[in-house]
Write a structure and sequence with these properties.
Structural class: mainly alpha
Helix content: over 70%
Oligomer: single chain
Mean pLDDT: 81
Distance between the termini: 81 Å
Largest sheet: none
Number of strands: 0
Shape: flat
Radius of gyration: 32 Å
Number of helices: 4
Length: 129
């Protein structure tokens, strides 16, 4: 008798848990649906005034923005990286001649270690050098 009561209680608890999970899932689906409806509405509003001319103008603006990045920002950052690498190579190729030079070399290596860690995180720059 006690065993049956426990089993019945367990079944009830399982049903309550299942119902809570379903309600949570239903709420998540409802929120997702509301988000998608809002996105669809925004897209419809923005596409109402679309013409081939406006699409072409948008593409030209995106191309111009990409061109600015490629022609100005990228060469500057590549130049900086090349100068740092040249400095690192100089430090590594010219070992200290005196004990006093050792401290200076340690400082230079410390400065360039930051650059090296950046290069490790951005492997595409290694291809450009």
């Amino acid at each position: 008798m006690i065993r049956q009561v426990r089993l019945e209680r367990q079944k009830q608890n399982d049903l309550v848990d299942q119902e809570m999970a379903e309600l949570t899932r239903e709420k998540e689906i409802s929120e997702r649906m509301d988000y998608l409806k809002a996105t669809l509405k925004e897209l419809r509003v923005s596409n109402e005034s679309l013409t081939p001319k406006t699409l072409f103008e948008r593409e030209e603006q995106e191309i111009d923005a990409g061109r600015v990045i490629i022609e100005t920002k990228l060469p500057k950052s590549i130049g900086k990286m090349r100068r740092r690498i040249r400095g690192m190579r100089t430090v590594l190729e010219n070992p200290p001649r005196h004990v006093n030079d050792l401290q200076d070399t340690k400082q230079k290596v410390g400065r360039f270690s930051v650059t090296y860690s950046i290069m490790e995180t951005r492997p595409f720059l290694n291809m450009l050098l």
